[in-house]
Amino acid sequence: MLFRLIYTSRYVRGHRGPLSDFRGILKSSRRYNYSHHITGCLFFDKSSFLQILEGSALALDTLLERIQGDVRHIDFKVLMRSKVARRHFGVWAMGGAVRSAAHDEIFAKYGISDDFPDNLPEDAIVTFCEEILNLEEKRPVSRVLIG
Fold it and tell me: Which domains are assigned to the chain?
């Protein structure tokens, strides 16, 4: 059975700085997620994370414990956990993007000014993240880190 987990957390600066820490998180996430059949995306605005994860209940529970133990995350908040019929991020062991001005139109479309879309319904959060990753793939100088 396939599940989706969506959470937010605040970033705690590591020894390398926000972008280096983000890249490090993506690199280790991709390795781990690939071997545990987890897919998803990670969105970062240099102060907070929004992540969508897809996988088995056991795989997500185990990963959730790892993430909650990561010192770069505080104020961890699970927004949603649900059974799903299919993966939305199946091509990404972990797609990732850093917020930029290029995302402003997408944020406005969803009525979001400065924060993440954590007050939106699950389907809207998923579509929001898909739109961000799709935009990043098309940009000539992208800040997406495809996985």
Answer: 3-145 (3.30.70.100)
Return the percentage of the chain with pLDDT > 90, whole number. 39
Residue 96: CB partners within 8 Å, gap ≥ 6?
Answer: 22, 26, 41, 42, 43, 44, 144, 145, 147
- For residue 138, give the nearest of 102, 101, 99, 106 by alpha carbon: 102
Helix (H, G, I), strand (E, B) or coil at 120: coil
Q: pLDDT tens digit string along 51-101?
A: 999 999 999 999 999 988 888 888 989 999 999 999 998 877 788 888 888
DSSP string, 14-70: -SS-HHHHHHHHHHHHHHHHHHTT-EEEEEE-SSEEEEEEEE-HHHHHHHHHHHHT-
Write out the two tokens for 74.
Answer: 């505080």
> Residue 14: which of 38, 46, 42 has the closest Cα?
46
pLDDT in tens, 35-46: 999 999 999 988
Question: Angle 57-68/18-35 helices, nearest 10 degrees?
Answer: 150
Q: Is 140 helix (H, G, I), strand (E, B) or coil?
A: coil
